[in-house]
Every structure is written in structure tokens, then in C-alpha cells.
User: What shape does this take?
Amino acid sequence: MDIQQNKSTLEVHPRNEEKIKKIWKTAGILLAITLAEFVMAFTLERGLILYFLFIALTIWKARYIMLEFMHLGDEVKPLFYAIIVPLIFLIWLLIALAKEGSDIFLMRW
Amino acid sequence: MSAHSTDIGVSSKRGIWGGGNEPLKASYGKLMMWFFLLSDIFTFAAFLITYLSIRVSYPVYAGPAGDFVGSNEYWPVPELVFDAIPFVHGVHAPLVFVGIMTFILISSSVTMVLAVEAGHRNDRNDVVKWLLWTILGGATFLGCQAWEWNHFIHGTDGGSTLTYINSLNNLVSEVVHGANLNVNEYGPASFAQLFFFITGFHGFHVTIGVFLLFLCFYQAAVGIYDGRGHYEMVEKIGLYWHFVDLVWVFVFTLFYLI
Assistant: This one.
């Protein structure tokens, strides 16, 4: 391919500084949450409350990644719900397997 | 963004059932990537919830952190297992290395979203620049994970004395170093099995992601996307890459924090 052909034929738009700023802001939030989790792992007492906090913070991070980075928030509502609603099934899986695990614990020990 | 494919829109002549409509306002490729990722979310969720289930079926080590010894009787405390960093031997640096890995992966996700943003603007130079950073981040993460696995497999100097059934079906009591699928010095056998399986499956996704990113980088650099008239491939591979980051966020919480 010669260099003439390799030249861009598309119109290049200028950077949207506002959008880029938002990306860096989201990144900052993600890193801040991770840092907070890190600190909590060493300062707070281990136990169910801490585990729930960790999982809540993780889902919060996941929300940012899906809505901001994957732009799911900008998609039309039917597509948004087509992705989010099936995840409801996971709640039952979580409840069922957590119960299963704790019952095995009671039988074993 | 599917500006290239919405020219058809709703044709008044053909009406709503005449075909050519795009109710989800997204291209075929992007929709399929989303549905693939949805199925992958279920796969990873099943793995991680299984981890949680097996984890709660064991008692947790409850003594003081300083006296921790690995045993297959109870689940280990993650910050006492993952406490090594490269180049420094015998230093107790709990979760530092995995913290760095998380930082690298999240950063590569940021550079990816910047590449996608540049793709929307048809800015080839920016796309190529940010994709290169993303590839670098992905490859570094994989290198870190290789080291992490290597250390996990070879274990600590002291090891742990365990009573277990070995691969020859004999009940033995001996010092165990490191980890394999049969026994490990850190905790119950399923601890290492789940670690290998889940972080391995995630690492496999990252590996494929790096290949795809490289492909995308090459195609962007030689001007294939300019010829096509749009940079949608950057967006689709970006979705996949963010998903890999998304999974790691959960792996990090479940394996290293809880």
C-alpha cells in the first residue's frame, strides 16, 4: 500500500474535551473505590458486614464500567434492559448456592 | 454509534414491518458482542458464585494474623497468602502486587475508552496511540499474572505440614510447598483449584483480548478502518476489553479481599 492511499479520507473531528474529562473522572472514581477497598481490607474487622461492603462497592464499580466505559447508559432503553434484566437470574443463583454452601458447612463441621 | 448503518431508518413506504428498521439503534456486530458478553457474564458469575459457595462451606482461619499457617482444615486469609512482590524475597507485602495488577488493568480500560472516543472522531493517530497503550497494559497484566501463578505454584520457603490423600491414594502427612490441583500449602485443595480455574479463565480472556487489540491496532494503523468509513471495530473490541476489566473487579474482590 503506498503512502498516498494510506492517507485518511475521513473527516477528523476535534477532540471533545468535555467527554475526555468525564472519562478521566470515571477512572479516578474507579481507582478511588479500589483504594478504599484496599484500606478497608486492612483496617476493618473481617466479617459479614465487611464482605457485604466489599460486594456493594464492587457492584458500584461494575455499574461505572458498564454505564460509562461500555456506554450501556447511552444505548436505547430496550437494549439496556435486554442486557440488565437477565442478570436477575443471578440473584437466585447466589441465594441458592450460598444456602447450599452453608448447609454443607453445618454437615461437615 | 452506528451512523453508517442508520441511513435506512424507518421507511415510510415499507412501514414498521417492512424490514430495514433498527429498533435497538445498534449495528448487528455490536448487538452480537453485547449478547456474547451477556452469556460470558453468566459463565463467570457461575464460577464466582461457586467459589463463594465452596468458600462458605469451610471454616475461616480466625486466629491472629501473625500466627497464620496454611491448613486444609480451614480457608486461608487472602492477604496472608498473596503477600509477595517480585524482586524482593521474603518481604511481607500483603495485596500490594495484586493492587498493582488491578491498577494496570483499570488503566488499560481507560486508554481503551479513549481509543473508542478517538474512533468516533475518525482520528486515526489517536486511535493507534491509545490502542498501543492498551496493548501494553494488557500484556503487562498478563506478565504480572504469570509471575503471580509462578509464585503461587512454587510457594513459600517454609511450606505447611498437611495431612492429605496424595495422588497414589495414600494418606500422608508431610510438608507441602506451593500449590497444584491435588494439594496446596495455603488451604483446602479446592482453594487452589478454584484459583487456577477462575484466574486462568480470566487470563485466557485477557490473552484473546490482547490478540484482538493487536489486530485492531494493525488494521487501524494501515488505514483499513478509514477505507471502511468507520471505526466501529474499535468499539466492539473495546466492549470486550471493558468486560475483561469488569470480571477482574469481581475476581479481585472475591479472591483477594474476602
Q: What stands out?
A: Residues 189-221 of chain B form the longest helix (33 residues). The beta strands of chain B are 160-165, 171-176. The two ends of chain B are 39 Å apart (CA to CA).
